[in-house]
Structures are given as structure tokens and as C-alpha cells.
Amino acid sequence: MKNGSLPNPAWPPLQSRLPGVAWPAVPGQQGLLLAALLTQLEQSQWWPAAAIEKAQLRQLRQLVEHAQRHSRFHAERLAGFRPDQARGLQDCLAAIPLMRRADLQSCRADIDCAWLPPEHGEVSLAQSTGSTGEPVAVRRSGLNGLIWMAMTLREHLWQRRDFSQSLAVVRAQLAEEDVARRGVSCADWGPPVNHLFASGPSYGMSLQTDVTRQAEWLRQIMPAYLLTYPNNLSALLDLAEADSVALAGLGRLKQVRTIGETLRDPLRERCRCVLGVGVADLYSTQEVGVIAIECPQGDGYHVMSEGLVFELLRDDDQPCAAGEMGRVVVTDLHNFATPLIRYDLGDLAVADGPCACGRGLPKVRRILGRERNLLRLPDGRRFWPLVGAFGYRDVAPVRQYQIIQRSLERVTLRLAVERPLSVAEEAALAEKLVEFLGYRFVVDFDYCTPEIPRGPGGKFEDFICEIAD
């Protein structure tokens, strides 16, 4: 067996849920199901791409046939389509029209299936944060949750995290007043880790907590792992660069984990330089769960093909070649409650070729974020502005920035600053931004106090294009 996701002997043992049995461990019901899935995932990650696609097609046929029978939306959309007659996965996908976010917003009652196998477990409602101003909701079964947990465990194991160590989490879901003031602690890392493994403690703090208080809290608990959003990590690094003792003593920190926002390469480098540790990113959405996780042996992300079909499409809806940027289209292979079949997420990513690690799982070079994060120029060109390298603090005491493109000629530089800026500092910032964007935009300034508001769900985007299509 290749060196993959299963824990090595130095890691904590499996956690037994059977009274009186410590070894060999006997997990509980959820743990047994997760162990069964992880065993299969350990094998399937090394399959050739053709074998993975063949297995995906088998599952896609099951999903399509169910949706045709039990969803009014899909019955009409897929009328006359025979998935059993498709010659291969790509042939099957090409016969299915794309599903848009607007469809999910306006037609969800018709998309939802009137029946699903009771063995799929209890159904719950999952709602996206609507960072684009377009929140959506889907029904998800217990099976979906199980797949999500298995992929989350796969990411932990690929990264070979030491579960005996402590975990700190700073995220938007911890928003209660007492959490924001003091933080919360738990005896272990919680699901899905505690379904299978013993672990050290975990600690949580609200994303709304002032970054200085976050730093004090991190110094107190001394975590081995920190999970947060990229822009919150950036704020912590800003503080550490301005105050050498702000994050002093974090010598136990082994890795930072990021979720929820686009992680840019300059932030990875800053984290390694300032904190001395790397960053592991995870790409997921509320609608479909874990989509891609970083390769433990190299650059880029591997798609979780056992749970979904992932497509990257050009503007002409044809598949992207390696190196091309395209729209992310996904099919959740196990959602029989609200079938998402060829669902256009509205995200952008860059395709990649086979991975040198040997895994057959498709590779994505970079996750870029939403289409509204593309800069537009008057000559029709559109590209991804790497604003994470914009050296604003070299010019003025800026704590936070956001760039908003209002038109083809104007951009707004929204700032949170430590003090009022001089006319000369504004002019220098505008010139630096124009040089960085590669076009002589008119730069307007907009100041926020004490910080720039985050979007729904606590997410933050450092560049937004507001030009309507």
C-alpha cells in the first residue's frame, strides 16, 4: 500500500467507544462507518483517472435516475435522457444542461426530491452565507454529512496532524457574546476526529473578536494548530509584524489551516516568514461540502472525486486544459434530497495536469474565488488581480484595505487606518495601486472605522468588481 492517508504508528490510537475495551479499539457507529469509508478512500486515491471516472459514472447514473423520478425540476430538465446509455462520464455530462445559482434560489421546491431512501439518514437544511449577495439553501441527508466528515478526516490524515496536540479555531460561527469575550474550550477536537481518534483539547473564539484580543488568547492557550480565515490570518500577521511580542511564544504552532476565503500565495509566504509554519488550505462550500484539499506532497489541490464530479469550464462551456482558468461546476454524487447536478458554483479555478504524487484524483492548480473578483479593463481584458501583494503598509499606516472596481475607469480604495492619512500618503497609495493594477484608474478613497465590515458569514474579499455583466 502506498504512503497515503492512514495514520502512522506514532499517531494517537483509535478511540474505543465500547465500555471496558481499550485495545484493540472498537469505535462507535459513526466511527465504524467513517473507518469503512476511509479504508476505501485510501485505495481509490491511487486509482488511475479512468478507473475513478468509471466509478463516478456508476454513481452519477444512480443519482440521475433518482432525480428524474422524484424531482419535478430534474424530471423536466432531463426528460428523455438515458444515463445508462452514456458511453462514458464526459458523454453523460455533455448531455446534461448546467444548473445555475438562480435555479436553486427560485426553483428549490421543485428541485427537492419528494422521496429519498430512508437509509440515507435524517435530512437537514444547509444554507450558504451568500458572500455574493445570493444566499442559497439545500437539503442534505445524513449520508452527505458522513461523506463530508470522511473527506475532512482525509485532509487531517494527509497533513499528518498530531491529534494529541491542541487546536485553536477562530471563525464566524462562534458569535455568542460570551464566546467573543472569553473563548470556549472542549475536551477534544470534536467531530469528525473524536468519532475515531483520541485527541487533545480544542479552543474556539469568535471571528468578531478584536485581533489584539485574539493574539492574547493565542499566547495563553499555545495551540499546535490554528484554523481561521485567510484575512484574519493576515490581520494577525500584521499585528505580529508591528509588535514583536504580539504572537511571541507560539513556538508550539505546527501549522495554520485556512477555510472560507481565497488563500493567496503571498500570505502563505508571510506566514512562513513571520510564524515559521506553513498553511494548509481547504476548498469547500455549504452546498456540496469538501471539494478539494491540498496535496500533501506538492503544490495544488486534489478534487474529492469519490464525493463529487468536478468540472472546470471555459466561457464556451468546454473543459479547461491544464493552466487555463475556468468556472467551477460540481455534481454532488450523494445528495438525493436536493440533487445538484452540474451546478455552477460561480467560483473560478485554474486547471492542472496529473500530479507527481501519483494520485489519480484530478488536480487543481489554484482556487481563485468568485467571478466578481476579476478586474476588468476598457479593452475587454479580464484577469485576476493579485492584490495580496499590494504593499500598502510600506506607504502608510493602513490596518486593512479593500479594492472595489466601480466602473471601467474608477476604483475605490477602502481603508481602515491607524490615523488620518495625509494628502501625500493618499497620492502615494493611489499611485502604487495604479501601478499594481496595470491601468491608470481614477482612485477614490473610502475610510471605515474601526474596520472594514465583513460580508455575510464573516467572509472578506479584498477585491470586488461591481460592474454588471
Tell me what you see in this structure.
By secondary structure, the chain is of the alpha/beta class. The protein folds into 2 domains: 1-161 and 254-370, ANL, N-terminal domain (Rossmann fold, 3-Layer(aba) Sandwich), CATH 3.40.50.12780; 375-465, 2-Layer Sandwich (GMP Synthetase, Chain A, domain 3). The chain is 29% helix and 23% strand. It is built from 11 helices and 20 strands. It has a 12-stranded mixed beta sheet with strand order 4-5-3-6-7-8-9-10-14-13-12-11, with helices on both faces. It has a 4-stranded mixed beta sheet with strand order 19-18-17-20, covered by helices on one side. Strands 1-2 form a two-stranded antiparallel sheet. Strand 18, helix 11 (423-437) and strand 19 form a beta-alpha-beta unit. Helix 1 (29-44) packs across helix 6 (142-158). The longest helix is centred in the first third of the chain and has 22 residues, at 49-70. The relative contact order is 0.12.
Biggest sheet architecture: 12 strands, mixed
Distance from N terminus to C terminus (CA atoms, Å) equals 50 Å
Proportion of residues in helical segments: 25-40%
Mean pLDDT: 88
- Anisotropy-based shape: globular
Structural class: alpha/beta
* Low-pLDDT regions: 3-11, 175-181
What is the fold named in CATH at topology level of the largest domain? Rossmann fold
Spatial sequence of strands, sheet with the most strands: 4-5-3-6-7-8-9-10-14-13-12-11
CATH structural class of the largest domain: Alpha Beta
How many helix segments? 11
Strand content range: 15-25%
- Counted up, domains total 2
* CATH level 4 superfamily of the largest domain: ANL, N-terminal domain
What is the number of strand segments?
Answer: 20
Q: Indicate the radius of gyration in whole angstroms.
A: 23 Å
CATH architecture of the largest domain: 3-Layer(aba) Sandwich
